[in-house]
Amino acid sequence: xxxxxxxxxxxxxxxxxxxxxxxxxxxxxxxxxxxxxxxxxxxxxxxxxxxxxxxxxxxxxxxxxxxxxxxxxxxxxxxxxxxxxxxxxxxxxxxxxxxxxxxxxxxxxxxxxxxxxxxxxxxxxxxxxxxxxxxxxxxxxxxxxxxxxxxxxxxxxxxxxxxxxxxxxxxxxxxxxxxxxxxxxxxxx
Length: 189
Description:
Layout: E1 20-26, H1 32-46, E2 53-59, H2 71-79, H3 95-100, E3 103-106, H4 109-118, H5 159-188
Parallel strand pairs: 1-2, 1-3
Helix pairs in contact: 1-5, 2-5
């Protein structure tokens, strides 16, 4: 991730430890975003940041409202040693969630556009495609179409599509952890 994205925003009302809030976003909040949420929680915990960073997920649509993580996503997560999202219930992102997250990670350019349309101006720079943190992802410059960074929706495919989705999320996860670590260090400076 290149410098200059500038996430200097702090959560209001946090007493004691600074909490950095990350939200992953897809369409219905049953496949990509809960998979990314689970992977990122695991990575933040492994990096010793679990007590400082919270991760949750949502969708841009309410079509899956109340549904659990897709069974195929759960199966792939379990096969790779991750939690499976027990208790997860899909929901659409709210204006409050959008305004209070330090980093919002949409799965596709379409999700990013939808979120940026809803977001107040001061939030727009916190909306960054998840795969921008994958060092092997295509380079997309400012103002260029972001769709080459899309994580395809596995819901329409088979198990391999869910495996591919997980691999793309995992490829970006370490970059996200390092970005958040740097943001937390900058807050402490």
